[in-house]
Design a protein that fits this description.
With 318 residues, the chain is mostly helical. The chain folds into 2 domains: 103 residues, no CATH class; 178 residues, no CATH class. α1 runs antiparallel to α7 and α10 packs antiparallel against α12. The radius of gyration is 26 Å and the shape is elongated. The C terminus is likely disordered.
Length: 318
């Protein structure tokens, strides 16, 4: 076991040295810093765009989307066209898909967009409420939010990958030392595997922290874009209360209560701080509070239960 441990240490140390020399050689041959940054950023954005286009196609297949013919919903199309004209974007086609809950999703940008809706959304919302949700999705198309977030994720993955490559010699050496020590102690195969995994985790901890920080930043950006889309929808429709009601209806339908008290309570966001930080959308209550603030009125939804209020804003669901 001692001989094997020493052999493992020599093998891993040699591999770490070879990788280290290779990285030094690449670094010595690198182009100018500005060129390097442009090349890396260009590749990240290119891969991100390809991923985005493929992701849109895959999402449409997964949702089993079917374009809604204009002849079946002429009034809905006219309202979407009026909202799109107000935002100076091309009116997108409308499609229905199987989302499993009342919801809407914007795909694409201001000139090639598509809005996918679950059929239940059309039955759940009144006309002003549906218009407000459609305006919210059009706001996402207007600023290409889905594409920007995908490109941001691609840049994060690229930077994280480069950090992993830079730390590769240290990771190889740390794993080799851990395995060698496990052999020298006469550890069982399970103990050797455990030691290897622990060493890998410790050696890559910095990369994990970096990835976590970037992920928090991306999620915070995503939540801000939801607020911005809400504000843009209110600006276009002039109906903050309608959007607030629509959000409450969707939230209620997406999280149905069970039992005898189901008509007396509405589900809130009983989640931990970390979960909220990693969420792509702000808490529904916070969004409705902002809309109620803008309208100066209470946001009410007929036939539902009382919702929590905050910041001096009473959100009552009757």
């Amino acid at each position: 076991m001692a001989v094997v441990g020493l052999a493992v240490l020599v093998l891993y140390a040699t591999a770490a040295f070879v990788v280290y020399r290779g990285l030094l050689d690449l670094w010595a041959r690198r182009p100018a810093p500005a060129t390097t940054v442009l090349v890396v950023l260009g590749l990240a954005l290119t891969f991100g765009y390809v991923s985005y286009r493929g992701g849109v196609a895959a999402l449409r297949r997964e949702l089993d989307t079917t374009e809604l013919p204009r002849a079946r919903a002429p009034d809905l199309y006219r309202r979407v066209e009026a909202l799109a004209a107000e935002m100076d974007i091309d009116p997108p086609p409308l499609a229905v898909g199987r989302m499993g809950m009342p919801n809407a999703l914007a795909l694409g940008g201001p000139r090639d967009g598509l809005i996918v809706m679950d059929p239940s959304l059309l039955r759940l919302l009144s006309q002003p409420e549906l218009d407000a949700i459609l305006a919210h999705e059009l706001a996402h198309l207007e600023t290409r939010d889905a594409l920007v977030k995908t490109l941001g994720s691609s840049v994060v993955r690229t930077v994280t990958g480069l950090a992993v490559v830079a730390l590769l010699p240290l990771v190889i050496l740390a794993v080799g030392v851990a395995r060698a020590l496990a052999y020298l102690r006469g550890g069982s195969p399970r103990e050797i595997t455990t030691a290897t995994r622990r060493a890998y985790t410790v050696a890559t901890a910095g990369v994990v922290v970096l990835l976590f920080v970037f992920t928090l930043a991306l999620r915070a950006y995503s939540r801000r874009r939801e607020f911005a889309a809400d504000d843009r929808a209110v600006e276009v429709t002039g109906q903050p209360v309608a959007l607030g009601r629509a959000l409450l209806r969707i939230d209620r339908a997406a999280q149905p209560a069970d039992g005898l008290l189901s008509d007396l309570a509405i589900h809130g966001d009983e989640k931990g701080t970390l979960t909220r930080l990693l969420a792509t959308h702000p808490p529904m209550e916070r969004r409705v509070e902002r809309l109620a603030d803008r309208s100066g009125r209470e946001v009410t939804v007929s036939g539902q239960a009382r919702a929590r209020g905050g910041r001096g804003v009473r959100i009552e669901v009757r």
